[in-house]
# Entry
Amino acid sequence: MAGIGPAPFCGMMLADHGAEVIRVLRPGMVTSLGDPAKDILNRNRLTLTIDLKQAAGVALVRELCDGAAGLIEGFRPGVMERMGLGPDELLGRNPRLVYGRMTGWGQEGPLSDAPGHDINYIALSGNLHGYGRAGEKPTPPINAVGDFGGGGMLLAFGMLAGILHAERTGVGQVVDCAMTDGAALLAAMTWTFRAQGAWRHERGTNLLDTGAHFYDSYECADGKYVAVGAIEPQFYAALRERLGLGDDPQVARQLDAGAWPELKARFSTLFLERTRDDWCALLEGSDACVSPVLSMAEAPEHPHHRARGAFVQAGGVVQPAPGPRFASAPAAPVRMPQAADKTVTILGELGFPADRIRALVEAGAIAGASGWA
# Structure
C-alpha cells in the first residue's frame, strides 16, 4: 500500500532482490516531495492506481492479496480495517499471507493512534537523548534511525521471517513493526554499555557519542572534515605515530576520560593545520582509522565506491546500489518508477481478463487509457 518513508523502503529492499512487489496507489495520492519518477524508494516495482473508495477497487486489492505472499501497509491502526482490507479479512481468504504493519508507535498502546515522525519515535525510545555534543541539545540523525533502520529495514526482516514461517507451516500472521520499538532495538549495544556501567547519562561524554577525542570528526584547513575512529589500542597507536604524537605521554592516556576534553582541543588544533585531502593522503586506508567526511555529491566518486559499484545511476538519478550483495544472485539493474499510469496494462499482464478490466474502468475503480473517469 503506497505511502511515504519506511513502508516504501521495505518494499524497495525486497524488490531490489527479486521480489515481485506491486504498489497500490490511490488516485491523487502524493507520496513524493518532487518528481515521482525520481523517487528512489519506489524503484523496482509496478504501480497500480486503484480507487479504494469504490467497492470494486477494494475487491480488486483483496483478489491481488489472495495470491500474494505478503502485504505491507503503513497507515494508522484501524485504517485498513475501515477499508475492508484488515488482517482478519485478508488472512481469512489467504491463510498464508504475511501482513506487515509499519507504524510509529505500534498497533497498541496509549500512543498507537497519535501522529508522529521519526524525531518523535527516536525521542521516546531513548535514542535521541544520546545524539549530540556535550552541553548542546539533542541532534536528530536526519530520519535514518526511526524511519529506515528501526522501521523499513526491520519490517523487511520481519516480512522475510514471516514468509519463511508461512512456507514451512502454511500459516501467515501479522507483523507489528513499530519504529519506536525498532529504534530502541538498534541501540542494543548502547544499552549493553549502560548495563555494564560504561555509559554516562550526559550526551557527548561517552566513547561513541563524540565524548572521546579518538572517535569524532575534525575540521581541516579547507573547512572540510575528517572522521577519526581509532578505538582499539593498536589503531590508536597507529594514529599517534602518523600524527607525530607517538612519544607524547598525555596523548597516551587514551581511555582516561578526564583527559579527553584537553586531547580533543589538541586534535582540533592539529587537524586545522592541513587540508582534508592532505590528511587523507597521510591517514586514509591506514590502521589509524581516518576517513574523509564526504558530501552526497562527493561520495559516489570516491575510488572505493567506484570500485564496488556502491552507487548506480538509473533514470538520471544517482542512488545507492541494492544491498546486501549475494554472490550467486546479483541484483538486477535498478528500474525507476513508471512515469505514466499503466494500471490497465499491468492487470492484463497479471492475467486479468479484458472484460474484467473493462468493468473496473467503467466502475471508476481504475483509470483507463485517458486518465481517471
Summary: The first strand starts at residue 22 and ends at 25.
